[in-house]
Amino acid sequence: MNTALRITAFTAGLAAAFGFALGVGNATGSGSSPKPATAAHATAAHGGHGAGGPEPATEHLPGGLQISERGYTLSVENPFVTAGSPTDLRFRILGADGKPVTAYQQQHEKELHLIVTPRDLSTFQHLHPTLAADGTWSAPTAVPTAGEYRVFADFTPAGSSEGLTLGADLHAAGDLRPAPLPQTGRTVTVDGYTVTLGGDLTPERSGSLKLSVSKDGKPVTDLQPYLGAYGHLVALRAGDLAYLHVHPDTTTPGPEIGFTTTAPSTGSYRLFLDFKHQDTVHTAAFTLATSGNTAAPGEPATDHQH
């Protein structure tokens, strides 16, 4: 478990993200160059996902900010796509020897979690790609609008005691219309469900987030497990898209899903909650500023789905 985001109970990308684990190294292969990173106390990752290999003595950066970390590199086959057009997103995880990694440990029912989000954090996709024998991952998807996207791969290589989250840029051609960070308030509606957020993100201090799910004015008490838990939360830091991926300390099927977290810094975050009910996965998105900090300005937003 990484220290920038403390999870006190069940853990399950994200991917970071949302995106939500946020290494050192230069890019090799296709994809993007590592992004400059702001200071943070540790890598935050989902379900104990951190970096494979021994922990260095120095502090970690949040996950997802780099394309390479501790000998592993995220190599996207074609980082240029067209907005609104279906595409087969293909990528590989390269080891320190430059060869594709072909063996992974399953974490939260999947060998790799893939998160795709634009830099304005307006939409969110949580994908589970397919692994070919040669180490190539593929996931059919389509990005809805033009702009710069971030792709997060959240995984644990076979034989590693911890996992890690790598990030790369994806460029979508089309009619670009930049938008401010969506402002949601503490209650959002998605697919007929009402989700209410309680608690705060406090920099460098453990705190609780509680999300309550209701439908038609009645609490939902029969949530179904999704990726081994009753809720799946990805948080992405606005500005650099540092990725925090957390899972609940809740063992009951609703209506409340609780998370214990520590934000790596002050700022505004987008929180994406996946929950499953009546055999369908729904995603509720919030914008939340850390305690004592004002979120980036923007107009009230309709919740986006993945």
What does this structure look like?
It is a single chain. This protein has 306 residues and is mostly beta strands. The chain has two domains: 46-173, Immunoglobulin-like (Sandwich), CATH 2.60.40.1930; 187-289, Sandwich (Immunoglobulin-like). 0% of the residues lie in helices and 37% in strands. The protein is built from no helices and 19 strands. It has strands at residues 68-69, 72-76, 80-82, 87-94, 112-118, 125-127, 130-131, 136-141, 147-155, 164-173, 187-190, 193-199, 207-215, 218-219, 232-237, 243-246, 256-261, 268-277, 280-289. It has a five-stranded antiparallel beta sheet, with no helix packed on it. Residues 1-58 and 294-306 have low confidence and may be disordered.
